[in-house]
Amino acid sequence: MTARPYHHNPKGGFRNPEGSPNLRIRKRRLIRFIYRQLGKKQRQPEIPEGHVLDRAAVDDGILAGGNPSVTWLGHAAFIIRTGGKVILTDPYLTDYAGPARMGPKRYVPAALKADELPRADVMVISHNHYDHLDARALAAYPHKDHTQVIVPLGLKSFIEKRGFARVIEMDWWESWTADGLTVTTLPAVHSSGRGIHDQKKTLWASFGIRTAKENIWFSGDTAYGEIFHEIGARQAPFDLALVGIGAYEPREIMKMVHATPEEAIQIVRAIGAKQALGMHWGTVLLTPEDPFEAPDRFRRAAIDQGYGEENALLLRIGETRSLKAA
Prior knowledge:
Number of strands: 14
Keywords: Monooxygenase, Oxidoreductase
Distance between the termini: 46 Å
Strand content: 15-25%
CATH architecture: 4-Layer Sandwich
Strand order of the largest sheet: 6-5-4-3-2-1-14
CATH topology: Metallo-beta-lactamase, Chain A
Region (Disordered): 1-21
CATH superfamily: Ribonuclease Z/Hydroxyacylglutathione hydrolase-like
Structural class: alpha/beta
Oligomer: single chain
Helix content: 10-25%
Order of helices and strands: HHEEEEHEHEEEEEHEHHEHEE
Radius of gyration: 18 Å
GO cellular component, one term: cytoplasm
Domain Metallo-beta-lactamase: 87-281
CATH class: Alpha Beta
Pfam family, one: Lactamase_B_2
C-alpha cells in the first residue's frame, strides 16, 4: 500500500510540505485582517511613469518578442511562449480580487482583457484565490475548446463549469506531456480557499514548464520553505523563474503564504534558476506595504546574496522579454 503523501492532510484537504513555516496567530485576528482587506476603501498609490505600457506598445512587444518569450500581463498573469507553444498563467485580468465587485480593486489595468488573449495551448492555474483564479476572466476567454487547462487537485469541476473542454488536475510531482511540452505540478508553500469555510480543501502548486530548449518555473503564490531545495534537486536547472515578490506584510500573517523579495531570491537560488523575474506586485493592493518597494528590495537582495543584479529581472505591465536574449 502506497503511503499517503504528507501534504494530503489526514483530516481532509491539504497542508504545506513538512518543515514549512507555521502560522502562529489567532484565527479571529486572521479573519479580521482578511475582512479588513476585503472591505476597506483602499488608497490609490501613485503609479510610477512607464509602469504600464500602452496597448500599441504591448502588441508591438509581443510581436517582436516571438517564441521564446514572456509577456507580463500584471500580477501573476503571463503569456509564455516556448517550444512553439503558448502558455497562460493565472489569468487574473478583471478589476476585483474578490466576489461580486468586493475585495481589493486593481489600481492598474491588465495589459490585455480576457477576450483579447491569444489562443493558448495550455493554461496553468496555481490555486483558487481570487487574484489567481478569476472566474469572470475565465468566462470571457474565447478559446475554451482548444486550451488544455492544468490545475492542482480539486479545481477541475470549477474550470469545467466555466465552459472549458479540456481540463486535468494533478498532484504535486505529476506531469503532463504533449508535443514536446511537459508541465509538472510542483509544491508551493501557500493555502487555498475562496471563503471562510473552504480553506485548504483544494491544492495549491507551482509549475515547471519544460520544452527542448527552455525550462521555466512559475511560482504561483508561495512562502519560502525547505521544499525548494528538493525541487532544485529533482528539476534543476531552470532557465527562468517567474517568482512572487509582493504582498508580504504583516510578516506574522504573510510569512506562511508569501515570500519577501529577499526570500524570493533564496527560493530561486534553491531551485537552481539562472534568472528570476519578479511578479505579484504593482497591480493590486492585497497587503499594507508600499506596493512599489518590492522591486528595489528584489534587486538589492540579488546583489547581497550573490545572485547578480542582472539576473533579477523586472518588467513593466504589458512588456515582453525575449528569452533568446536572456
